[in-house]
Fold this sequence. Notes:
Blueprint: E1 2-6, H1 10-22, E2 27-30, E3 55-58, H2 64-73, H3 104-128
Antiparallel strand pairs: 1-3, 2-3
Amino acid sequence: MRQIFSSRRLENVEAVADLLQQAGIDTWVSERRSYKGNRRGTFSYREEEQQTAPAVWIVNAADITRARALLTQKGLIEAGRSEQLVRPDYTRAGMPVVPKRPNVATRLRIALVAIAFGLALWHVTRLAG
Length: 129
């Protein structure tokens, strides 16, 4: 079995599975809703929620090319390699590594800690002298 489509919206996954079933391609849906289950409750596309997303899987390996062609024709997946497979931050041997600079929040925290340390040092020297 190979995964061909996934979405956080179960309705989209079920629609793609139905489309492939109508084309004669055997599919299996992971994270399917249970009997009378309400899966829609607290839905969000945010990346920080790393729950397993519902997905459509192709049962027979021989049907993968037909399924990809059908989904590409319908505009549901892109043809060729996905841009997500080639990450822009991926470094190969010989590529220059660009150091990440701290963001504004990190710089502000460092400055506030330095100011607090300076004030504490000033207060200690004032009390001692």
